[in-house]
Amino acid sequence: MKKSLLLTSIAAVGLFAATTAFAGNLTVVSWGGGYTKSQVEAYHKPWEAMGGKKINSEDYNGGLAEVKAQVESGKVIWDLVDVELSDAVRGCDEGLLEEIDPSILPAGDDGTAATDDFIQGTLVDCGVASIVWSTVYAYDKTKFSGSAPQTMADFFNVKDFPGKRGLRKGPKANLEMALMADGVAPADVYSTLTTKTGVARALAKLDTIKDVTVWWETGAQPAQMLADGEVTMTTAYNGRIFGAQVTEKKPFVIVWDGQVWDLDLWVIPKGAPNKAEALKFIAFSTDTKRNADQARWISYGPVRKSAAPLVGKHAEAGIDMKPHMPTAPANFKNALQNDFAFWADHQDELNEKFSAWLAK
Question: What is the pTM assigned to this prediction?
Answer without folding.
Answer: 0.79
